[in-house]
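User: I'm curious whether this sequence folds into something compact or stays loose and floppy. Could you predict its structure so I can see for myself?
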Amino acid sequence: MPSYKNARATEDVRRELSDVMRSLKDPRISGLISIVKLELSGDYSHCKVYVSSMDGMEGAKNAVAGLTSAAGLIRREMSSRLRLRRIPQFHFVADDGIAHSALLTQKMRELGISSHREEEDDGN
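Assistant: Here's the prediction. I'll summarize afterward.
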């Protein structure tokens, strides 16, 4: 079970990393890119980042290639923004979480199943 300090550092890294990702000018990192999951090691030396794209798995793979080539720049930016004893090495992994959830939502609508959020909106 992760400690409170590690969970807080993980959330700080996620917040700053998403901000740094938005400022990158690489054309491979375009469209809606999202961090699905972030795993920070206990000693903060490694960080595995699962990245998803609305463009599907190919868009996520292109984004991972762009992020991997910019890993040094990302690490330098993170060192200036965060006060950690060690800035992690970033390892980016393509994930199809956004596309998968959009597909599930579409199939639920086709079947006539509404989500809990839609039911609350209709009730108000």
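Summary: Residues 4-96 form a domain with the GMP Synthetase; Chain A, domain 3 fold (CATH 3.30.300.20). The mean pLDDT is 85.
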